[in-house]
Aspartokinase
Amino acid sequence: MGIVVQKYGGTSVADKERIFRAARRAISEYEKGNKVVVVVSAQGDTTDELIEKAKEINENPSKREMDMLLSTGEQISIALMAMAIEKLGYPVISLTGWQAGIKTDSHYSNARIIEIDSERLQRELDKRNIVVVAGFQGINKYDDITTLGRGGSDTTAVALAAALKADKCEIYTDVDGVYTADPRIVPNASKLKEISYDEMLELATLGAKVLHNRSVELAKKYNIPLVVRSSFNDNEGTIVKEVNSVEKLLVSGVACDKDIARVAVIGVENVPGKAFQIFSLLAKENINVDIILQSIGREKTKDISFTVSKSNLKQTLDVLTKNLHIIGAKDITYADNVAKVSIVGAGMVNNPGVAAMMFEALYDAGINIEMISTSEIKISVLIDEKDAEKAVRAIHDKFKLHLLNSNGK
């Protein structure tokens, strides 16, 4: 007898039929003799609807009150899921994030899990209850409800799997697994049988919406194999694990992120410490910076460009504008009509021609590159937003990723 954690996304619990389908999957594991924890997201578009309701009342509400509001979406889901399991004749209890012992820091709207007190969970599992837990939420040291950011239910599931030393963690979603690109953009994208934590982490961070990036970080840290699979069929999914294949794939996937903006700090004095000054100001505001490009100094000044998420753009501009005299820059400009397109692959590290192939694909498609960022297993480019989907298709074709079969080879 083992412990199984299953997570169901918003589309997987969007209506009565889907809730019962998820409930039967959970019961199927329970009947095998396993202890079962079910983590659920808010139904369908509930979170977006709650955000709209908030805007009707206050266009700029505090993040604390937004967390209080948004956490109710998952509370509805856990109650309905528990009612479905109850209706099917099985013992069940629903728990909010705080009832399940999920303790977080106080970064409202994007909190991180600090620890999980699993005593209540263990007690309920020992009673042979199926335990349904609200994803996406926890409680901080002030006893305030916090949320973990979009996609945070994945992180809840993996964190619970780690705390309970679960035998497996299954992420049920509206796709069959992890693909070489978003099938909505590239219809002939291939499903991967398996992918490494590192590759999945890069894809999740770079815009692939299959898994929350922090959930992959946690899974890697505690060596928890994840299975990403569809809640609508019984197809085999994609296993995310520490892959040790001798023949690593050259490129495993292409990701696209349109939730991005480019900021340029113009005419910065060309002396040591200026970059530190700029980015430490942003770090204090908890603003993540991605691609960074610094121009060659000229006339004793330089320009520093970087990207942030669109949701952080206003705050970034406010912080920099307020400190313009300290930074000693002439101007700050921005563009929010850009997109980041990236390729990821563990096999890239030993193949120097990968970047050239990617750039050739973009050249052939008539797409201009604004910024470039590379690491051992990824290459990202910043391009015009209108070219994003064309770029993904061009790169996917160039690397012949459609020829990968379901074995990921």
In short: Residues 245-401 form a domain with the VC0802-like fold (CATH 3.30.2130.10). The chain has twelve helices and 20 strands.
